[in-house]
Amino acid sequence: MIKDNTIAPLLEADERPVKPALIRGWKMLCPQCGTGPMMDGFLKVRDTCEVCGEELHHQRADDGPAYVTILISGHILAPLMLIVFETYRPDPLLLVVGFSIAFVAMALYMLPRIKGAFVGLQWAKRMHGFVKTKSDANAAAE
Question: How many domains are there within the chain?
Fold first, then answer.
């Protein structure tokens, strides 16, 4: 809760809607401007956006994207594996190899996008270092 009434309008005027930030993050774009690339490599998040200069080094995605990727992939592929096995009765080795390849491909596709969405969510919710401090607000007001 903001106690200083002089900076409250400044902080409230800078709204950060969650849905556009998540979509931009899924597209691996800067959550603020939506045009600059967020990633510098496969999973490395850039320190700052090349277009708008937004600092992205504050993000703390850690193991969250990997956990969510495994959770989603498992919930999609496990029932599919059961259906394929019960319907077609393929050789178990063929089933394991085929679904292992499918899992790795799905995980490699989703992991950077989910990480981008995590960074977008953190930016929108002002988590970690993405929050505007009182000293920043006072400097902008002067």
Answer: 1
Global pTM? Answer: 0.81
The answer to the question of residue 103 being in a domain is yes
Distance of alpha carbon 12 from alpha carbon 16, whole angstroms: 10
Q: How far is CA 128 from the centre of its chain?
A: 14
Instruction: Tell me if 86 is assigned to some domain.
Output: yes
Cα separations in angstroms, 78 against 33, 34, 94, 97, 128? 38, 35, 15, 14, 35
Q: Is the pLDDT of residue 12 over 80?
A: no
Name the residue range of residue 56's domain: 17-131
Residues with Cβ within 8 Å of 10's Cβ and at least 6 positions away in sequence, in order, are 137, 140, 141
pLDDT tens across 95-104, in order?
Answer: 999 999 999 9
